[in-house]
Amino acid sequence: MKCRNCDREAVYDDGLCDACHRAAEQERARIMSDRERDSFRGQTIEEDGTVRDEKSVYEEQSARQQAQSGVHFYTAGLSWRVKLALGFIIFCVLSIIVSALGFLIMAMPYLLGALVIYFVYNILKALFHR
After folding, report:
1. Could you tell me if 55 and 42 are in contact, meaning their C-beta atoms sit under 8 angstroms apart?
2. Which residues contact 86 (CB under 8 A, 6 or more apart)?
3. Torsion over CA of 76, 80, 82 and 85, rounded to 10 degrees?
4. Which of 76, 75, 69 is nearest to 89 (CA)?
């Protein structure tokens, strides 16, 4: 058992700490609010007496999230209309990106031709300017 005063593992069965010689007090269990429970990282005792380590659950979730890559949309609590609107917005954004890339691919020969003409013009200008 840890001493609450000096945070060492030196508390004996009689309740006295070997390091600071103070009586170790047991922290009383209390019921947490929903907000406290959601942000709590440590051990919790359920109503049926089972002990759950929230830190390990949190670490497992963060490790799983780091292992996954890409874009994730969490739509578990949304209505079907909101999901439909999000899908339409994503479709529009992707179609704009694809059409812009298609335009660049179609315009690439003309852009390369203009670039070649520009370089040839500058080379000839430099040669005849002397």
Report:
1. yes
2. 73, 75, 78
3. 120
4. 75
Give me the sign of the Cα torsion angle 117, 122, 127, 129: positive
Single pTM value for the model: 0.35
> Can you read off the two tokens belonging to residue 75?
């739509």
Indicate the burial class of 3 (C-beta count within 10 angstroms; 0-12, 13-18, 19 or more): buried
pLDDT digits (tens, 9 = 90+) for 67-85: 666 666 677 778 889 889 9
Measured distance CA(130)–CA(122) in Å, rounded: 13
- At 52, list the tokens: 């759950």
Calpha distance 90→84 (Å, rounded) = 10
